[in-house]
Write a structure and sequence with these properties.
single chain, 309 residues, alpha/beta, Arginase, Chain A, eight-stranded parallel β-sheet, 10 helices, 40% helix, globular
Length: 309
């Protein structure tokens, strides 16, 4: 069974302006490393655009209309200080969410064992009706709710290891006992959410805030003692990863000390969960990561682990 890799040039065309950390060079660095000979066995697919019905499973129609209606005809438009749109941002956002839909379709129908979506804009800060933190639509939530609506998947678990708490995914998941969201993130960093007492409607939210400066052993302990046992107890039919790589020691937007080896280890742990509980079905979605060499190295290790090499 193959690993599926989905991306699209439109996601490179999403322009956030000069000196913005969430820039097109991030995706170029990822795409470049995945063009290497070691990835020749990756199954490659252009990300399809999400349609309105798919987006509206995670966001209300009024929000979808508002975001797509804000796409400027020229220049840049700021939704807030950090979240920017250009004329190509509408298609980029549709392709980013659509990539996860396509990945879910592939792993649920046996077209791939697992999948990695290399897309931008990222998604995990996009709340039910609020864009923020570089994010427009919540890509992983769109994919999860597509899995339920189209493939009948009743229990879906997301592990978000981005250094920033995925407040948007928690917002969408927290009232739905069939959706499980677990997060490791740097305590006190943007968006200043994700406290351990936030548990969701049926203990379906698990936040593990880590102290600034935490190294891989602290991260691994949280995964081993809290997140993996909770995911196994939840018994998901599909495992998803919000794969941000900005807890790496070199990332400029955080103060954590993870390494490529930590991300490979975490990938292997999630693969084991998926293998044991849901026939290996796993979808990984790129979120943050703002040091380009570190991002490229982390993605290389992550995707090699997905491929089992």
């Amino acid at each position: 069974m193959v690993t599926l890799y989905l991306t699209h040039h439109a996601c490179v065309e999403h322009d956030t302006g000069d000196f913005h950390p969430e820039c097109a060079d991030r995706l170029r660095a990822v795409q470049r490393v995945l063009e290497g000979e070691e990835f020749m066995l990756l199954h490659r697919q252009d990300a399809p655009p999400a349609d309105r019905e798919q987006l509206m499973r995670a966001h209300p129609e009024s929000y979808v209309d508002r975001i797509l209606g804000m796409v400027p005809g020229s220049g840049l438009r700021h939704i807030d200080m950090d979240t920017v749109m250009c004329p190509e941002s509408g298609e980029a956002a549709l392709r980013a969410a659509g990539a996860v839909v396509g990945a879910v379709d592939a792993v649920m129908t046996g077209g791939a064992r697992n999948a990695f979506c290399a897309v931008r804009p990222p998604g995990h800060h996009a709340e039910i009706a609020q864009a923020m933190g570089f994010c427009l639509f919540n890509n992983v939530a769109v994919g999860a709710l597509h899995a339920r609506a189209v493939h009948g998947v009743q229990r879906i678990a997301v592990f978000d290891w981005d250094v920033h708490h995925g407040n948007g995914t928690q917002d969408i998941f927290q009232a739905d006992p069939g959706l499980f969201y677990a997060s490791t993130h740097e305590a006190g960093n943007f968006p200043n959410t994700g406290f351990s007492h936030e548990r969701g409607v049926a203990d379906n939210i698990l936040n593990c805030p880590l102290p600034p400066g935490s190294t891989g052993d602290v991260f691994r302990s949280a995964v081993e003692t809290a997140i993996e046992p909770a995911m196994r107890a939840f018994q998901p039919e599909l495992v998803m990863i919000s794969a941000g790589f900005d807890a790496h020691a070199h990332d400029p937007l955080a103060h954590m000390r993870l390494t490529v080896a930590d991300y490979i280890w975490a990938t292997q742990r999630m693969l084991a969960v998926a293998d044991d509980l849901c026939s290996g079905r796993l979808v990984s979605v790129l979120e943050g990561g703002y040091d380009l060499p570190a991002l490229a190295g982390c993605v290389r290790g992550h995707v090699r682990a997905l491929m089992g090499v």
